[in-house]
Amino acid sequence: MINIIGLGYIGLPTALMFASHGCEVVGTDYNPQLIATLNAGHASFEEKGLDELFSEALKCGIRFSTEYQKTNMYIVAVPTPYDKDSKKIDPSYVVNAVKSVMEVCPKGAVVVIESTISPGTIDKFVRPVVEEAGFVIGRDLHLVHAPERIIPGNMVYELLHNSRTIGADEPEIGEQVKAAYASFCQGEIVVTDIRTAEMTKVVENTYRDINIAFANELAKICRSDNMDVYEIIRIANKHPRVNILSPGPGVGGHCISVDPWFLVGDYPMLAKMILCARTTNDSMPEFVLGRIRDVMQQEGLTDLSRVGFYGLTYKENVDDVRESPTLQMLESMDRHLAGGQVKVYDPWVTRDLVPNQYHDFDAFLSDVDMVVILVGHSQLREHMDKLKGKVVLDTRHICFLPGTHRL
Ligand code: SAJ
């Protein structure tokens, strides 16, 4: 049996995947409301293919509980909150989960940490707690780090197909955990040590952040001298060894906008390019606000309350708004006393989050003269003709109506 601790964006799909591939699974979360929702057969967030996977897992007998279970394998997928000011993660959820495991687990249990952690977290925070509890690591308890790699929006597919990293103190434990994940994972599973696994995860997200920062910097350069950044990137990417990502209104989410800070925080004298990339990406919401001012001026628009922001989530086709560029733009407008004026709509965000938020696309459109496309949800891509007659500022390069303004 596997006891999966933390049933959020990573823990839930992982639990469902193990269960639907023949493994006995109990999912544990400290939130009783979440457990009630899951036991009633409902997923707690939207994700392509998740409902089908959920039905399959229920048929296979997955259970959900607020209690930790007595078993020989645990997977910890609790959040690692991030403090924006100190740029450090708070490892206490991970540490507390490991403490709770130690209260119930038999001797020799394997504890796999999937949560994203800054490199060195297991040495600095987890090992001491295990040792203080009187456990001998490698005898009474085995520690493993198996960072998740799945991309929100395509999680179910990526759980099945992505390659994975398993970091373990002892290679034979690494192989044992690899065999468990191989029940569903068709990608290559690489076994290494814990420190390497921690670092590799952060490096992957930092690499993407730097690539996006390059695209965003190119967008600024091209804007300053009237060049088409999208055409330039499109052609450059035809080179067999060039693959530049897309410029956009900023980098949101809880991963790419966070993980590079771990390296900046721990290696301030060395992580110069990483810091620069972070700064560039963090400057994009402000850059878009500048573009809105320019376009309004160019089009003779003066009334901010006739401007609509399409998209509140951090990227397309997800319901997650963490570190969303749109929210950053709205906060910045608040600081400059221009808040509460623009209209906002996102088909994926059903709860009321900001002032002047609409829940109907047509009602939103009828109240605005200018639409700023901040997220490329499929809904918009499929109904782009509805923007005909509006002034459009497209930060995602998805609208090709004549006269569309770009980043
Ligand atoms: N973005 C751009 N331009 C691009 C691509 C993305 O501006 O060309 C923006 C997005 O709009 C979004 C942000 O970057 O605001 C991040 O989105 P994303 O789709 O690049 O990544 P995440 O944060 O949803 O997921 C990442 C993934 N990491 C990598 O691709 C290296 C995923 O595989 C990880 O599992 C996840 O972080 C995580 O949990 O760490």
Overview of this protein structure:
- The protein has 407 residues and is of the alpha/beta class.
- It is built from 15 helices and 16 strands.
- The chain has helices at residues 11-20, 32-39, 50-59, 92-104, 121-132, 155-161, 171-181, 194-224, 229-236, 259-266, 272-282, 284-298, 325-335, 361-366, 378-382; strands at 2-5, 25-28, 63-65, 73-76, 82-83, 88-89, 109-113, 141-145, 164-168, 189-192, 307-310, 343-345, 357-358, 370-373, 391-394, 405-406.
- An 8-stranded mixed sheet has the order 3-2-1-4-7-8-9-10, sandwiched between helices. A 6-stranded parallel sheet has the order 13-12-11-14-15-16.
- α7 (171-181) links the parallel β9 (164-168) and β10 (189-192).
- α10 (259-266) packs across α11 (272-282) and α12 (284-298) packs across α13 (325-335).
- The radius of gyration is 23 Å and the shape is globular.
- The N and C termini lie far apart (51 Å).
- The model has no long low-confidence stretch (mean pLDDT 96).
- Ligand SAJ binds at residues 116, 148-152, 204-205, 208, 212, 245-246, 248, 251-253, 255-256, 314-315.
Keywords:
eight-stranded mixed beta sheet; six-stranded parallel beta sheet; 407 residues; 16 strands; alpha/beta; binds ligand SAJ; globular
Secondary-structure class: alpha/beta
Chemical compounds bound to the protein: ligand SAJ
Note the beta-strand portion: 5-15%
Total helices: the number is 15
Mean pLDDT: 96
- What profile does the largest beta sheet have? 8 strands, mixed
Cα distance spanning the termini: 51 Å
Strand order of the biggest β-sheet? 3-2-1-4-7-8-9-10
Uncertain segments: none
Radius of gyration: 23 Å
Q: What global shape is seen?
A: globular
Helix content: 40-55%
